[in-house]
Structure formats: C-alpha cells, structure tokens
Amino acid sequence: MRYIQHHKSAGFTLLEVLVSVAIFALISLASFSLFDGVLKSEAVSRKQMERLNEVQRAWMIIERDILQIAHRGMRIEGEAPSENFLFASFDGYSSNNNALAFTRYGWTNPGLLIPRSDMQSVAYRLEEKQLQRLHFNFVDSVVGEEAKIRPLIEKVERISFEFFYQKKWQKEIEDARLPLAIKIILETEDLGILTRKFLVAGDNQQAEAVGG
C-alpha cells in the first residue's frame, strides 16, 4: 500500500500577525512624532526669523531717518515754530513719554512734482505695544491733519531714548542742539531688551567717541 504524505501549507499564526501589526504601529507612531517635531521646529524657526526680520527692518528705517535729521524746528498743529530740533513727547504724537519727533531731509520728490517739500516731519511712538512711525504730508502739520501711521515692531512693552551730548549719554534733550547720537531702548515681550545707537550729524561739533 502506498502512503500519501500531506505537507502543511506555510503561513502566519494569529499571534505573529498581531506582533507584526504592533511593531508596525510603534514604528509609524515614532516616525510621525519625529516628523511632527520637525514641522513644529521649522514653524518656530520661521516665526523667529520673521520676528528678527521685523526688528531689523525697523532699525533700518529709523537709521535712515536719523541720519538725515535737519537743523530745523517744527510747527505742530499750527502753533508757532519751535527752536528745538528734537521733541521727546507732545500731544500731537503721544499722550506719554514714549515718542520722539524731528524733521528730516531727503523725502524723495523729483523736480518738486508733488505739491510738498522734500523735507518730512516724522515721529516714533509706542502705542498699544506697537512701535509706530508717523509722518505728515506737509513738513509743518496743520490743525486737524492726521498723521500717516506705519507699524514697525509688535510686542513692545516700553521704549526710551537717550542722547549723546559732550561725551556723555543723557535722557534730556538740549535746546536748539542736535546730539551726536541717539540711543533707542526697546523692552519686548519675547526678545528681551533691544538697544541700538544711531549716529547723527551733530551740531557743528567736532567728532567725539560715542561710548556707553
């Protein structure tokens, strides 16, 4: 009599399938966590870069203005012109001591085609935690004229100014004189304290070392 040998078909047991599924799930979870971490890290880095670019753009705008400060007083809302070249605070720009205003040269107006001066009155103020640049269409603002506002830096808690006169920094502005430099100190929510010094033309004084 011939015996017929039966071979069992190869396959996976239920336990083996379950173990495989569990391993695959763990690998997938680990891969997803890693990928999610990379995406979050990239988003944080992008926000930080945008924030730093925001600050850098503001510094460039402020530097451009300060480098062209004019030896010229300002007429605020139709009042008599002042002999001072800088203003630390007044109702026309701010209700507190968080403002600085002056007149600058170099407002582009080729051939004087636009009915305005090539000089510009500008101001910087802190309003609702936002550093703003303000300017008027005319170098001497008139009563009722509203300033054009350009937001520069968000999340600013405080702003203060210092002025370099006669080899020292001081908080007060001297009458009818420009300092050799202006220091701006910003206290921000996320970047801490930011300080920047800007050189100005001065007031016919010999060059001095700006320290501190």
TrEMBL record:
SUPFAM superfamilies documented for this protein: Pili subunits
Gene3D superfamilies: GSPII I/J protein-like, gspk-gspi-gspj complex like domains
Membrane topology qualifier: Single-pass membrane protein
Keywords per UniProt: Cell inner membrane, Cell membrane, Membrane, Methylation, Transmembrane, Transmembrane helix
Keyword hit for Membrane: yes
Transmembrane segments: 12-35
Principal location: membrane
Record InterPro entries: N_methyl_site, Pilin-like, T2SS_protein-GspJ, T2SS_protein_J
Subcellular location: Cell inner membrane
A matching Pfam family: T2SSJ
UniProt similarity note: Belongs to the GSP J family.
PANTHER family from the UniProt entry: TYPE II SECRETION SYSTEM PROTEIN J, TYPE II SECRETION SYSTEM PROTEIN J-RELATED
Protein name per the record: Type II secretion system protein J
Organism encoding this protein: Thalassotalea profundi
